[in-house]
């Protein structure tokens, strides 16, 4: 079986589950976001989100050794670097999305995996 025939549906499914970006509204300029994506509740700073994503990666055996850079701006996470395989790539995005305070979408466009 051609691996690309398997990869395309998997990536499409991952993209479909990421949700839509929430744009506009609110006051700009601060580096804190609410845990409920701007809908009230406790605020979480970008540095706290970064630490949460890195901690989540440390709990995963493959991601703990992967070379992934995490950047957060106003609650939006961007991942860059390399993962060992497609499954780890998908797991990285999923783990990042589940960290409190993360606003969609999680940008994985600069995260690579071997082909």
Level-1 CATH class name of one domain? Alpha Beta
What portion of the residues fall into strands of 2 or more residues?
A: 25-35%
Report the structural category: alpha+beta
**CATH-defined architecture of one domain:** 2-Layer Sandwich
Number of helix segments?
4
What letter string, H or E per element, gives the SSE order?
HEEHHEEHE
Oligomer: single chain
C-alpha termini separation: 15 Å
CATH topology annotation of one domain: Histidine-containing Protein, Chain: A
Rg, Å, rounded = 15 Å
Topology:
Layout: H1 3-16, E1 32-34, E2 43-45, H2 46-58, H3 61-64, E3 67-73, E4 76-82, H4 86-97, E5 103-112
Parallel strand pairs: 4-5
Antiparallel strand pairs: 1-2, 3-4
């Amino acid at each position: 079986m051609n691996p690309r025939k398997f990869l395309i549906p998997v990536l499409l499914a991952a993209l479909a589950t990421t949700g839509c970006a929430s744009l506009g509204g609110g006051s700009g300029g601060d580096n804190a976001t609410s845990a409920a994506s701007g809908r009230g509740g406790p605020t979480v700073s970008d540095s706290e989100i970064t630490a949460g994503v890195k901690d989540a990666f440390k709990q995963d055996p493959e991601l703990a050794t992967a070379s992934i850079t995490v950047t957060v701006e106003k609650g939006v996470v961007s991942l860059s670097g390399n993962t060992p395989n497609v499954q780890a790539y998908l797991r990285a995005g999923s783990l990042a999305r589940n960290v409190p305070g993360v606003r969609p979408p999680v940008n994985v466009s600069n995260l690579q995996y071997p082909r």
